Backbone:
């Protein structure tokens, strides 16, 4: 990127090579401290997933246990409750992928309408959509559940997927992105040539804003994957629950006595580790896109 | 702006069957989003408001209460106590989190470190971890008797830290949230920095400005919209804090009581107290507080917005 | 097991004439083999692990009833689902697992059916206090599935090392607490679970505490009476002296604490012994069971912590079948015996409590002691106790206020005063007439 190169050149013009290298090393060390901080809990997670229940409580947190139990933990994890863990992973993947794709398409269409068309109430509508971000989840979740129950949709995955496709931030991002990234002349030219609005959207706008769409898809994917409260309230059956609710349920099970409670910590820890992997993979695959998408979003 | 080449699209003849009316088009494009928005945000909100006008009693069932619940919330010490907890939380946590994010973004943008890509990805990684799992992990780490920090302290004959004491709880929770979101905010700033035109850096160099002058006088003002955005999101996230304190209760129920944060209060009102109407009113007042705080903040900063 | 209903008889009662006529036409037209009535589906919500085993046993023994088992959450999430179902008027099961402490709050909203006509025959199969939890006079709403009578598990090695005999009274307990902690500041006699309202209640229970009771159509709220003040003063002494801990239980710190000898005793219920074995690996063989300490050595009384029942919902479309399900799952000899070996429940049928096989079971973890005997003795010493119609609120208030006192806002006795105020205010808001 030219900006970086220029700043680097700019720096180079100001400093001696030795000074530059020293401040590079210092800054790298500083950032490494924070990297350590970022990784530390994850290292703990990985190490703990290799321990048995007994070792979890008695051996040093950042070291290995007396035996390497990862494979056993994994098999216990997958066997527990008739393999419900894989079901939860599948649910999370399904909900997040569908919600991510849906959110991207809906936000792009809405953003396009708000960016490139003038109509009555446009700004008001935009402000209302953004205002929705400020509504506390607790205000919405219980009434949503009651409404779903009344309409027969409770304990139905749609009750999680559909709300997750609403991304006000996505609409905001796409509006800005389209506003700046799609030339009005191009659109007008296409109209003069007789192309229909939908065709214009599909053939001209979408290819131009693909990076932004991927950003919105990624944000919604992660948001849905990590969502705990909505599926907790809306979904009843364990076979519909996503990984967040499933693991938290096991966690609560492990925290309560009262008969029938069992000790599940090594399974929960291993499950937590496995549940992070898909999101990381998605990040790695998509990281070149979200940078570009967020760039446009930050410019006003 | 780079545009993709699609001359063919521009000259394609009109197709029948797609909506071609230009006046109708925006509404049709908005329709899918708006439908879901109305169904899952507006409708529950209206229903929640409706519920908040009623009181639920175990004996009398549901009774109309009008604005009584709202009046009650205004005078509810537990609610405002929770808000105050989060104000304290936010005052400490937000500047640290956003400050670090900004610092890292600028440093990484400069390229003045080795292994830039590793840092970028590494800092963002905590955001990939659901807050439920992050809190469970940090809960283990915080363990006052057997957590790793306590173990290390004992190994060095130091007094064991108590992260879960009443005095430390706010900071311990703030730490979890900071850990989760520094990377996220950093990425937003980083992308915004990338958007600053390169000729500005060139011009600054020609003028003889130092790197820090460049950062302060040029980068920060241009970054301001992104910073404002993240502050508003942070205010929103802070005042709505729920997952982290909720899970921390399992380790520190004595400290994190049922009204520790307003959202926790609303949740316990609905689940333990069966007071759904009042819980809805609490949530609404919280929403107003959030909107108010964001609005006030925007007003203050607009007046003092740095000039370019 | 006798059948308690007649498929055709039920049809006549429950369907209107037209439907019966229509059904008869179809029935006549079908070959005899197919004419056998389709099994009635009974939906059961329960979080009991592996309950499917008992369900399968039932289904095999009852060709005309089929249980569909769903785990709708453990504890609170399931109760919320039930409440939501009651509000929405749909989505409810026929039979639902409800802990004893919450039965009253559901009775308050008239959620249950009366299965007395089917269940009263089994009244004698349970200890009196247990039966009184599920029945009021002849009205029976649920069947007891398991209970949790209180006793004390202790570390023999820690007591021996200090030369202390395990306490039998609370006075001795306090003395032992001070001695143990004085000898080793890293050891406490116990972790007092004041953050768990049910544990505290279990200890107040045998003292005769009546926090919330009904008097006609009035509620008598007596939370901060002399009993609770005595209790509060006792434990406050120990807290102030620093000889006990008051951290929440059932988390990794607490498990480790029990295993590594940070805590010398665990005041726990009948399900405790097996539960302890699942995580306390290094201390195996060192634990023993003893009676719960007593306030008055001459009157042996205990309380109950935990346990649940299977309640039949009023909304059920198949009352006799649902009742049969609840009764069978809680009384069938084979099924209930399986609870003790597979799910490690503490049994609540008198038959099992007194069976030599179960009570005499020597456990290596407890140095060969037949610990179940201790808890069986406790089961028969549990006194009756009345729950409030808003037990969730009461528990929450207790956790909040005890937590506040432990954090420095006054003493435990002050906490009881605050709870009293909070509960009276709440009860009045909820429309109760408070005596």
Residues:
């Amino acid at each position: 990127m030219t900006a970086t190169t220029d700043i680097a050149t700019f720096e180079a013009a100001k400093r001696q090579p030795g000074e530059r290298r020293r401040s590079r090393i210092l800054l790298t060390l500083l950032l490494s401290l924070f990297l350590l901080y970022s990784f530390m809990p994850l290292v703990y997670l990985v190490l703990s997933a290799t321990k048995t229940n007994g070792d979890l409580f008695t051996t040093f947190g950042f070291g290995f246990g007396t035996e390497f139990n990862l494979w056993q933990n994994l098999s216990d994890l997958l066997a527990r409750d008739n393999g419900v863990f894989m079901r939860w992973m599948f649910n999370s993947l399904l909900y997040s992928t569908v919600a991510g794709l849906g959110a991207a398409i809906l936000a792009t269409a809405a953003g396009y309408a708000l960016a490139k068309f003038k109509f009555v109430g446009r700004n008001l509508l935009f402000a209302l959509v953004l205002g929705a971000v400020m509504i506390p989840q607790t205000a919405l979740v219980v009434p949503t559940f009651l409404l779903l129950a009344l309409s027969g949709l409770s304990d139905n995955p749609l009750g999680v997927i559909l709300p997750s496709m609403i991304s006000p931030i996505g609409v905001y991002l796409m509006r800005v992105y389209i506003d700046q990234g799609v030339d009005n002349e191009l659109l007008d030219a296409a109209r003069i040539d007789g192309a229909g609005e939908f065709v214009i959207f599909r053939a001209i706008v979408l290819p131009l804003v693909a990076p932004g769409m991927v950003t919105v898809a990624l944000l919604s994917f992660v948001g849905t994957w990590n969502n705990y409260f909505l599926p907790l309230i809306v979904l009843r059956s364990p076979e519909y629950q996503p990984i967040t609710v499933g693991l938290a349920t096991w966690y609560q099970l492990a925290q309560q006595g009262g008969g029938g409670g069992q000790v599940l910590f090594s399974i929960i820890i291993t499950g937590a580790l496995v549940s992070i992997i898909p999101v990381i993979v998605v990040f790695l695959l998509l990281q070149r896109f979200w940078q570009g998408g967020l760039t446009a979003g930050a410019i006003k | 702006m780079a545009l993709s080449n699609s001359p063919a699209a521009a000259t394609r003849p009109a197709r029948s069957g797609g909506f071609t009316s230009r006046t109708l088009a925006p509404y049709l494009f908005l329709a899918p989003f708006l439908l879901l928005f109305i169904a899952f945000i507006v409708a529950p909100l209206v229903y929640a408001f409706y519920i908040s006008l009623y009181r639920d009693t175990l004996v009398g069932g549901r009774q109309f209460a009008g604005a009584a619940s709202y009046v009650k919330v205004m005078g509810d010490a537990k609610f405002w106590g929770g808000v105050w907890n989060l104000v304290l939380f936010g005052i400490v946590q937000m500047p640290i989190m956003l400050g670090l994010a900004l610092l890292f973004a600028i440093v990484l943008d400069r390229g003045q470190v080795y292994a830039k890509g590793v840092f970028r990805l590494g800092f963002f990684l905590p955001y990939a971890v659901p807050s439920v799992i992050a809190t469970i992990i940090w809960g283990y780490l915080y363990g006052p008797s057997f957590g790793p920090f306590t173990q290390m302290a004992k190994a060095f004959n130091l007094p064991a830290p108590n992260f879960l004491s009443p005095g430390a709880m706010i900071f311990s929770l703030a730490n979890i949230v900071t850990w989760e979101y520094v990377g996220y905010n950093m990425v937003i700033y980083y992308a915004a920095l990338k958007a600053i035109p390169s000729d500005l850096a060139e011009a600054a160099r020609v003028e003889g400005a130092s790197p820090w002058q460049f950062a302060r006088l040029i980068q920060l003002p241009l970054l301001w919209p992104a910073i404002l955005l993240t502050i508003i999101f942070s205010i929103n996230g802070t005042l709505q804090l729920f997952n982290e304190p909720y899970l921390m209760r399992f380790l520190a129920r004595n400290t994190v009581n049922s009204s520790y944060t307003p959202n926790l209060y609303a949740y316990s009102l609905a689940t333990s107290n069966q007071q759904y109407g009042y819980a809805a009113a609490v949530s609404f007042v919280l929403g107003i507080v959030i909107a108010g705080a964001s609005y006030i903040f925007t007003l203050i900063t607009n007046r003092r917005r740095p000039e370019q | 097991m006798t059948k308690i209903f007649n498929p055709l008889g039920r049809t006549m009662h429950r369907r209107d004439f037209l439907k019966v006529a229509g059904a008869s036409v179809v029935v006549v037209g079908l070959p005899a083999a197919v004419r056998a009535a389709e099994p009635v589906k009974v939906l059961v919500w329960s979080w009991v692990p592996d309950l499917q085993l008992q369900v399968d046993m039932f289904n095999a023994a009852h060709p005309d009833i089929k249980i569909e088992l769903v785990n709708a959450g453990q504890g609170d999430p399931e109760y919320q689902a039930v409440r939501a179902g009651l509000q929405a008027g749909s989505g409810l099961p026929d039979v639902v697992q409800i802990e004893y402490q919450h039965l009253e709050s559901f009775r308050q909203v008239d959620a249950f059916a009366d299965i007395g006509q089917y269940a009263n025959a089994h009244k004698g199969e349970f200890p009196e206090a247990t039966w009184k939890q599920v029945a009021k006079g002849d009205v029976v709403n649920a069947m007891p599935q398991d209970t949790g009578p209180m006793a004390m598990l202790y570390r023999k090695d820690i007591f021996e090392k200090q030369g202390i005999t395990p306490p039998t009274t609370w006075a001795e307990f306090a003395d032992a607490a001070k001695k143990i902690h004085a000898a080793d500041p890293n050891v406490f006699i116990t972790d007092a679970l004041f953050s768990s309202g049910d544990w505290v209640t279990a200890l107040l229970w045998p003292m005769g505490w009546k926090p919330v009771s009904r008097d006609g159509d009035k509620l008598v709220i007596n939370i901060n009476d002399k009993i609770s003040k005595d209790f509060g003063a006792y434990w406050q002494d120990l807290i102030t002296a620093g000889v006990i801990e008051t951290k929440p239980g059932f988390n990794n710190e607490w498990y480790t604490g029990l295993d590594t000898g940070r805590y010398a005793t665990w005041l726990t219920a009948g399900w405790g012994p097996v539960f302890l074995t699942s995580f306390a690996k290094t201390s195996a063989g060192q634990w023993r069971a003893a009676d719960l300490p007593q306030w008055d050595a001459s009157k042996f009384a205990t309380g109950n912590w935990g346990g649940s029942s299977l309640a039949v919902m009023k909304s059920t479309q198949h009352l006799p079948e649902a009742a049969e399900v609840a009764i069978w799952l809680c009384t069938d000899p084979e099924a209930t015996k399986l609870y003790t070996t597979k799910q490690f429940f503490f049994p609540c049928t008198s038959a099992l409590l007194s069976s030599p096989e179960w009570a005499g079971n020597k456990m290596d973890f407890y140095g060969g002691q037949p610990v179940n005997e201790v808890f069986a003795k406790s089961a028969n010493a549990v006194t009756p106790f009345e729950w409030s119609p808003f037990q969730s609120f009461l528990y929450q208030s207790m956790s909040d206020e005890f937590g506040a006192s432990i954090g420095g806002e006054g003493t435990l006795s002050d906490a009881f005063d605050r709870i009293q105020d909070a509960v009276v205010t709440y009860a009045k808001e909820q429309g109760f007439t408070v005596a």
